[in-house]
Amino acid sequence: MYKANEGAVARLFETIVKLETVEECAAFFEDICTIKEVQDISQRLQVAEMLHEGKNYIEVSRLTGASTATICRVNKCLLYGSGGYRTALAKNEESEGEQ
Length: 99
Fold this sequence. Notes:
Layout: H1 7-18, H2 22-32, H3 35-52, H4 57-64, H5 68-80, H6 84-98
């Protein structure tokens, strides 16, 4: 797809990692993405969380409004992807356990 260590894509990821607060991230994503793009990305994360919890496609679709195609794609990434969802979910669980 793309190489995360090359050019503009690397610069984007490096910039996101440097943001320190939820407010900084929100302001950045509000400027760089459309509202729909942010909603779509957040829906995918919500789908990943529910699949990780063991919910089935029908339940996930009902609770999130996501299409079965989106749910299938997220599930495929969870099972066979590069580990991005798994890492993010683990970090969220880690930080929630600390609270």
